[in-house]
């Protein structure tokens, strides 16, 4: 064996799992296809349960001073969760890129080996081990491990190669997201209805605004690259009448509302966690939070003092 466990993917799920395995004294190698972190921040903030599990691992102080809130919504209906038991409220401001940075540093401190620029290409398993083929900066090589965990995202190569069943419903629409600098737009809560669709505009910093656009009748598309900013600006103009075309897009994305979940999280010596095991519309802000929670055996819920 080269190691006890190989984790494919250094997103929030893979990094949290790597730290957890090391805490249990298990050797782990993480193979991540990107040479360096993308810096993208799909997720924002922590749900209450994620705050609890990060606290249980002593990780919360690493995020600096965290502002928390009791104010949430369920399908647009305001909800105040302040009256519930628990030691924490939710946070809505930590960027996913910061979460990944903190988790990676923690996992490495625990002794995890993270190999960036190493893409898992294929796998085979038998009763004794899993063999994986990896392409790294210096060429291809093989790794033999007791268990492989696919934390390689919604299009998981591990899930497909190992033959997991992934039933659900396909996307019916396309939604745009853009983080844009240098534009002046009205602040809009998630789910604000305008003629022709739903929009959101929330400032991530003084000069950076996150826009979400969900236009009625938009057809789902398989894109090979990021969504063109011109298309996003045109949709924003149609729905809000605001011109953002002169802004600078920092990150754009297009995604759908497909919902799928594997029927098993384990097939023999291959396991899945995070988006590789479940995908859904990110509107509820759950995906990263659930992915982190997939990988940890939490202690019981603490109570608020
Ligand atoms: C627009 C948008 C907004 C979102 N907002 C929120 C939010 O507010 N709150 C929230 O909780 N969630 C949110 N999410 C969901 C969240 O981003 C994901 O659920 C989360 O990133 C899943 O983490 P993961 O580690 O499972 O997968 P990923 O973050 O996708 O990480 C997978 C990793 O695997 C690597 N990889 C892929 N294939 C291979 C391979 N073959 N070999 C090696 N490495 C590989 C990838 O490079 C990547 O680093 C949002 C998603 C989107 C699209």
Automatic annotation (TrEMBL):
Residues 2-296 form the FAD-binding domain. One of its GO terms (molecular function) is FAD binding. Its cofactor is FAD. Keywords: FAD, Flavoprotein. This is FAD-binding domain-containing protein.
